[in-house]
């Protein structure tokens, strides 16, 4: 089911399948969110849970048993139920099904809440452990944004701009396995705030950042100031991605964890960034998008 929400400034649409934001328009009518053109990338802003990225050979061990799970988890392929809806806000909730239990044998509730603001929107995740054992999970966002932003400009005129100068070594994501190899470097930042945007940055998959000093990142046209800004301060990792087929969009992806590392094993609970939520507890994360 498709839900529409508005706050008088922005209008958004959210699909209950995957609790995915599929449209975001401001006063000028420009579609800020990636439109899902299949020749580039079919999705818009998938919710990533209970993993981000890939498992080795799409499987891992939970309590000594092998389970299979596709890249980025099952939430983006699951039907969410309406929890609440108000002016400019919507909450959708996912609880276990026979299909989720087959690959993730835990009792949980995942609530995704979208709230429109004066300058864009906020996405909030609430993960609850409704079972009787610790709940391992990773959660993340994957929104794509149309670039260029409603103007006569090219993709290459934009820059990725961080709040503060950053020094980073982005690890390689292996093309065949989609695992992260922390022993190899795909891109290096040396006390820099900006990365010139170009399609070649993503020909070997996403740029993966960890432990950034910055709390926000922009994809922005330096001359006009047009673009998008994301506050990802509650997330320890950030992915920036576009498909290697030169699509006119960029995804800004706040993560609590990442794909399996080539240097780690296959125990689900021991994956990098995995949270272990105690029985009866819940954890909240949120990121905010501002249209510039």
Automatic annotation (TrEMBL):
Residue ranges of the TM segments: none
UniProt record, GO biological process: carbohydrate metabolic process
InterPro entries (alphabetical): Aldose_1/G6P_1-epimerase, Gal_mutarotase_sf_dom, GH-type_carb-bd, LacX
GO molecular function, one term: carbohydrate binding
Name this protein carries in UniProt: Aldose 1-epimerase family protein
Organism this protein belongs to: Candidatus Acutalibacter pullicola
């Amino acid at each position: 089911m498709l839900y529409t929400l508005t706050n008088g400034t922005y209008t958004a649409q959210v699909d209950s399948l995957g609790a995915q934001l599929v449209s975001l328009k401001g006063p000028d009518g420009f579609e800020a969110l990636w439109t899902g053109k299949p020749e580039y990338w079919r999705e818009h802003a998938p919710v990533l849970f209970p993993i981000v990225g890939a498992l080795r050979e799409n499987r891992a061990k939970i309590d000594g048993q092998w389970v299979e799970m596709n890249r980025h988890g099952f939430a983006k392929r699951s039907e969410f139920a309406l929890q609440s809806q108000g002016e400019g806000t919507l909450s959708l909730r996912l609880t276990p099904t026979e299909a989720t239990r087959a690959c993730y044998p835990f009792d949980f509730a995942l609530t995704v809440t979208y709230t429109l603001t004066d300058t864009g929107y906020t996405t909030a995740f609430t993960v609850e452990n409704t079972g009787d054992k610790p709940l391992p999970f990773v959660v993340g966002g994957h929104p794509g944004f149309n670039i260029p932003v409603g103007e006569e400009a090219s993709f290459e005129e934009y820059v990725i701009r961080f709040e503060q100068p950053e020094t980073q070594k982005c690890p390689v994501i292996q093309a065949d396995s989609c695992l992260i190899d922390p022993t190899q470097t795909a891109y290096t930042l040396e006390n820099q705030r900006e990365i010139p945007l170009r399609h070649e940055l993503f020909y070997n998959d996403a740029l993966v950042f960890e432990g950034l000093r910055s709390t926000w990142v922009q994809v922005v046209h330096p001359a006009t100031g047009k673009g998008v800004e994301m506050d990802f301060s509650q997330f320890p990792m950030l992915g920036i991605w576009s498909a290697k087929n030169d699509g006119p969009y960029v995804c800004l992806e706040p993560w609590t964890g990442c794909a399996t590392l080539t240097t780690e094993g296959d125990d689900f609970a021991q994956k990098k960034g995995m949270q272990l939520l105690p029985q009866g507890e819940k954890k909240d994360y949120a990121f905010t998008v501002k249209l510039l």
